[in-house]
Amino acid sequence: KRSSIMGPQAAGTIQRPSMHCNRYAEYFLLLLGVSMTATVILQVFCRYALNHSLFWSEELARYLLVWLTFVGATVAYHRNMHPGVDVVFKRLQRKNRTRIRLFVHLISLVFFLILIWYGCNFAYFIRAQTTPALSLPKWLVFSVIPLSGLLFTLHCLAFLYRGSQPKTSRGGRP
Fold first, then answer.
1. Which of 24, 74, 81, 147 has the most CB atoms around its CB within 10 Å?
2. Beta-bridge partners for 137
3. How far apart are CA 62 and CA 4, in angstroms?
4. Contact at 8 Å (CB) between 164 and 99?
């Protein structure tokens, strides 16, 4: 048997929060998508039926789309649904695939930590600015960058934990 990188206590500390955060992120995506759709429909109705354009709707829809993109990327990462080129990867032996997968997650973890660091710095840098139409603080809009970095990091640690576990007798994950 292989020894695990992380102890058995890490399962509850990493796996469960990753799954819970992903579930809440999925509900939040639903809310963002419905809000963005309602905003755009309301804008189209007001513009063409009432001949009065809502000055704030395009900005709100744009910021909802930004949040939807970043949070949606974390959900796709958690579900392992990001597109990838795996022609060479599928031809490797199972042991080498596991090593490559571990390496990719470690490189991704570094990127996610950079995303958190620079996202926080950027949000702090623009903390005094507000959006033109909604007068929202811009740090609130761009806080999705470090927030998504945190979610990515949590999911990545969960992947690293799962990848470090020995296989069961049936060949699946424990």
1. 74
2. 130
3. 44
4. no
- As to burial, measured by CB atoms within 10 angstroms (0-12 exposed, 13-18 middle, 19+ buried), residue 147 is buried
The pTM of this model reads: 0.84
- How far apart, in Å, are the Cα atoms of 153 and each of 40, 74, 75, 157? 33, 9, 12, 6
Residue with tokens 């490559």: 100
- Do 75 and 25 touch, CB atoms closer than 8 A? yes
Kindly state the DSSP code that residue 137 receives in the 8-state scheme. Answer: B
Q: Which residues contact 61 (CB under 8 A, 6 or more apart)?
A: 36, 39, 40, 43
Q: How many CA atoms lie within 13 A of 169 on its CB side?
A: 0
Which residues contact residue 67 at a Cβ distance below 8 angstroms, ignoring those fewer than 6 apart? Answer: 32, 144
User: Hey, is 101 helix, strand or coil?
Assistant: helix
What's at 58, amino acid-wise?
E
pLDDT digits (tens, 9 = 90+) for 43-99: 999 999 999 999 999 999 999 999 999 999 999 999 989 887 777 888 888 888 889
